[in-house]
Amino acid sequence: MNKFFSSNKENPIHQAKFDVTRNMFTFLTIVLTALGLINLIQADINMYPLLAGAGICLVVLFLLFQFKNYKLAGFVAMMMAAVMTFYNMMVTSNFGHFVDFFWIICMAIFVFFILGKTWGIINLFFNIAIVFLILHFDRTGELNRVDKPFTDFSEINFAINIALSGIVFSYLVIKVLGTLRFTEINYVEANMELSKSNEEKTVMLKEIHHRVKNNLQVITSMLRLQLHDIEDETTKHHFTDSINRVSAMATIHEKMYATESLTEIDLESYLDALVSDLISSYAVNLKVETSIHSNVKRIEPKSIVPIALIFNELVSNSIEHGFSDRVTGKIEIQAQQDEHGATTVIYRDNGEWKAPKRETSLGVELVQSFTEQLDGTCEQKHSQAGTEYIFVFNKLL
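^ that's the sequence the OP posted. Answer follows.
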């Protein structure tokens, strides 16, 4: 059986709607049957709509229990209620049709609660349209309504209808408000549980980042100790590069641990910390002035590692080669994100560019590889004023 004809009793809201449908139509079946028999004895014309209404309620209850689905019962009740509205309006009443409008309101509340806003509006306007169309055609003489004679029982019948519709109306309002209150309480509790779970996960992730940072720092410390035992300058240079790459990744986890949000990092803050660490490591007798500006306030963790290693290579190259014969230097980094999400990052130094001894090196290959990983492009410019790299990243965020 498909989803339309099935009910989810595990959901308290669905169960509440099922219970409202069952209780309301059970009540109406009993009451309308009793009133229909009384009107039958009194030979009152109201016996027809009352007994018909009892029959409708029985059909709704049958469908409800047969298919265990309140929506199907709600649709049938909505259609049959429209028929009853048409029937009642075809009969003139000494008391007008005040009670009929009250019953329409009760059914509108029921349909709104059971079937939702859209069907509730359709049901309400359809019944109102029936009422006004019949009144219009009656006024223009195009329709002849049945006259209902006024009897001693008419006032009693009117009072009974008012009482019944009032009971149904009150019951529906209480159940709707109760269900809304129940839903509100459950949403509040669910949000509290979700917040607690997120807080626990945040603490756990921060602890993981903290431990990873500590482990990477232990690795770099061990490598620095081993560095003292290396005599070959070329090997020592490569060893130092590797240490700084590990240190760059350690800085990532340190920032992740320190930030309030584990899903984003401020680019300017991270680059400032990274460049400062590299200068402390490489520029022993060199004073390097830095200028870092960025409007990128959010960068995802998956993008920060490639960015870190790219700038690790660029800063290392500037200090080792561009500033090799100088006592001062300057490094500038500017990052600007446009309205389409693409990020332009400009890196420049005022060092003296020297042609590399080899066309390719590990550092150059790393820069190219990570630039491609971020769906970016890189343009190099060399002049007497220094070296400039212009990156355009499409997947930085």
